Amino acid sequence: MPISSDLLNRFLGLAGLLAMIAVTAFASAFAGSRLAAQPGGAPDAVRVAAASVVTLYAERPAAGLVPFDPMAGPAPEPQVTWRWRTASGFAFASGGWIVTNHHAVAGARTIEARLADGRRVTAELHGVDPRRDLAVVRLIDAAPEPLHQARPVSIGERVFALGAPFDLSGSLSAGVVGGFDRAYDGVDPVGYLQHDAALNPGNSGGPLLDGRGRVVGMNTAIAEPAIMDVGVSFAIPAEMVFRVAEQIRLEGTAAPPRLGVTVRSLDPALAGAMELEPGAGLIIDAVEPGSPAAAAGLTSGDVLLSLDGVRLSLPRDLNRALLDRAAGEDARLVWRSGGARLERDISLDAAPGVEDGGSIAAQADIASGYGLRFEEAGPDTDGARIAHVSPGSPASLAGFRPGDQVLAVNGRQVADGVEAGLRLEEAGPAAAIRVLHQGETDPRHIGLARAGSGALSAPGQIWPDASGGPY
Q: Most buried by CB count within 10 Å: which residue of 259, 325, 336, 411?
């Protein structure tokens, strides 16, 4: 889960915490979830619900560096290693179907689950929705009773978080609902439910429950810049979790519709130059050839004002509005081109390459966690040309698009797509990528975080330099 904090929050009492974890972790591996067997404390329905919650272990890539030896000359090459990461999940349908966060299992080559009774079973990734940070896995040889969606909750209503913080399976924390429709950053389309039940690493993907044991949301993040609980926690609303999870279960994916634009928010400087108010639209950086936007005549430099009546100020507004639609539907788009205000119904299509984007066979391009797939470079092309950018991936949200050329990764030039892929695999949780965007004459460096690495942008800037797409 995304986490960070000031120095006091980082280190105060850390030694005591580590000692507590060392003493309890071994016992928790065999104890399973005692919550359901202990009387008192949480409501009975919450204790019963614990049997439907699992601890997930995902074996994911991580960069391992050989210690630098000053007598050996240049630092040794980084080597890709695999590490087990802990998260949570819960049953949403009969038959072993578990929903969790995408960032908890992204790039995993092996997934296992510990049940509430202590058994450890194999799990298989079935499908993902990176834009909404959701994934569905299926347990092999286990089928916990599914949980149910809660009715709408109110500010101040008591809620309970179940999960495995620091691999302490079956842990429970409690709090109250603090708010709704919270934004995490300028591109994330989810309107999060805010609460103050304690969340820590390992809680990602676990359920947030009401007093009757029904799911209010999926615990996903804590406020930046914290690395542990600070009393501000975010959960994906239950309605979205159950709707998307069921779509992935039935169809293998939750493919979003496509407009075909990469956009940027209008900060005061851009807005002033265009004689617009800051936040009064999204300027188009690029239009994908053959997309609905291209067919409608949209061009780079146009300003999107609204989609289906939704005012567009940040990329997340467009991202979110599109996710509420389906491929093949029409959307009413209002935009400004030059000095003219235009309005038209545009037929959305499916983003290329995502029809089977949630299936196991189609996840090679997001396995590294960056969301880039390369084509073979031509004789007159430097570096690696991008063939596909996975929608909702870190590369997509950073403005990478097909046709861009990756020239170097972490200061090392790349000759082709194979080398670029290897360098990204070696890079670990983040990479400094030198890229030449299509249509530009000068390369630029962009820092790109691997999905699920926790290196996410902080909210709270009035005019974040947010760009995203293609949408």
A: 259
